[in-house]
Amino acid sequence: MKVTFSEYKEYMQGDGYAEREITRIFRAFKAMDGQSRSWLVWWIVARRLPKDEIEGITARYLIEERGFKPVNAFIIMDWLKTEPETAKYFLLKTETDANIGEKAVRELEKLMPAVQTQSAPGSSEQEADESLGDS
Fold first, then answer.
1. pLDDT per residue over 38-54, tens digit each?
2. Does 129 fall in a domain?
3. Does 21 map to a domain?
4. Number of domains in the chain
C-alpha cells in the first residue's frame, strides 16, 4: 500500500498543516524506516492507528491522552525508536495539547541529515509522483 505526495498533501492540508510543514514532514517520513512510513500510510488510507508500542508509548496514547495530531504522534513514535531518551524528555517537557509538527521535524533533521538534503517533493513532475509505502 502506498500514498502519493498529492494524496499526502491533500490530507495534510485538510488537517491544517502549512505548506512548509507539509513538504518537510514528507521528507522526514521518506527518511524513516518502513515501519514508521507504514503508520502514516495506513492512517491516510484507512484511518487506522498502529498498535505498535515503542518505549511503552503508543500512537493512540499520544493522540487521545496527549492531544497530538496523528502525524505528529507518528513522528514521535519514530523518534522514540531512534533517540528514546531525547524523545521521552521532549514528551515530559511538552504541553498536553502541543502541535509539534515544525518543532519535531527540526529535531528529526538534526538526527537524519538526509531530510535536509532532499529537494521538495512536487518541485518537478517526477517528484510530484513520489510516494510513501510499498507498491
1. 999 999 999 999 999 99
2. no
3. yes
4. 1
Alpha-carbon torsion angle 114, 74, 84, 34, nearest 10 = -60
Task: List, as one string, the DSSP characters of the chain.
Answer: -EEEHHHHHHHHHHTT--HHHHHHHHHHHHHS-HHHHHHHHHHHHH------EETTEEHHIIIIIT---HHHHHHHHHHHHH-HHHHHHHHHHS-TT---HHHHHHHHHHH-HHHHHSPPTTSSHHHHT-EEE--
Please, are residues 3 and 45 in contact by the beta-carbon 8 Å criterion?
A: yes
Cell of 31: 527518511
Residue type, 126: Q
In a domain, 12, yes or no: yes
- The arithmetic mean of pLDDT across residues 85-93, rounded, is 89
Over range 62-91, report the average pLDDT: 93
Region 18-39: mean pLDDT is 93
In a domain, 133, yes or no: no
Give the number of C-alpha atoms closer than 13 A to the C-alpha of residue 56, restricted to the C-beta side.
Answer: 5
Backbone phi and psi for residue 58, each to the nearest 5 degrees, phi listed first: -115, 160
Which residue range is the domain that position 113 belongs to?
2-118
